Amino acid sequence: MAGEKPIRAFLAVEVPHHITAGIRDIQRRLAPRIEDIRWVRPEGIHLTLKFFGNISEEDIPCISGIVGEQAGNTAPVTLRVHSIGVFPGPSRPRVLWMGLTGDTDRLAVLQGDIESALPACGFPREGRAFRPHLTLGRARSQKKMFTGLGDIGEEGEGYEAGRFEAGGLTLFRSELMPHGARYSKLARYPFAG
Q: Regarding predicted confidence, which is higher, 163 or 89?
C-alpha cells in the first residue's frame, strides 16, 4: 500500500525474566573490565531465528502461515544459557554474547525449515549459518572493538544465566529510538504440546 510505513521485524524466542535477571548480573560483573561497549538492555535480549529487515503489513499473513505451521510441528525446547564469547573472534571483539546448549539441534532444524520456506513470501535465505546466542553488548562504534575482556578462554565457561523451556516463537516489531530499540509483539506461534 502506498505511503505505508515499513515494519522492521524479526522472529525470535522470548527469554524469560529469570534468565534476563541472570544476564543483568553477568553484565554487572563484566562492566568494570570492559571498555568501549554498549550493553544491551536485558529486557530487550532475545534469541533471534530470522531478521527480516523491513516488511509490510501484507507480509505478516504469509510469514505467519509458514512460521505457525513449523512451530506447531515442534515440541518445546529446553535451553541452558551459559558461557560467554565474542564475534567475530578474540582478536577483533565486536559483539559479546552468551551461548546456549540443550535442544539447540532441534532449534537449528526448525530455523532451517523456516528459512527454507520463507522465500515463498519473498524473504531470501540467510547466508550465514545459524549460531544460537544471546547478545550482551556491542562495540560502541563501527570502527572500534571493545577492550578489557582479554582472552576469554576457560573463564568464559564460568558464566551461567540459567535454563528455560521455550514454548514458541514471536514475531517482533523493532522501532529504533534514541535510547535504543523498542520491541513490540506482532504475532505469537506456540510450539506443539
A: 163
Asked, for residue 73, whether it belongs to a domain, the answer is yes
| Cell numbers given for 11 | 522472529
Residue 26 lies in a domain: yes
Determine phi and psi for 72, rounding to 5 degrees: -65, -15
Identify whether 193 is part of a domain.
no
**According to the model, what pLDDT value does residue 90 have?**
79
User: How far, CA to CA in Å, does 1 sit from each of 6, 56, 185?
Assistant: 10, 8, 22
Q: Does residue 2 lie in a domain region? A: no
Q: For residue 1, what pLDDT is reported?
A: 47
CATH number at residue 167: 3.90.1140.10
Residues 6+ apart with CB under 8 A from 35: 146, 147, 148
Residue keyed to cell 535442544: 103
Least confident of 28-42, 152-166, 169-183: 152-166
Q: Domain span at residue 156?
A: 8-188
The runs of H, that is alpha helices, within 32-190 are 59-72, 104-117
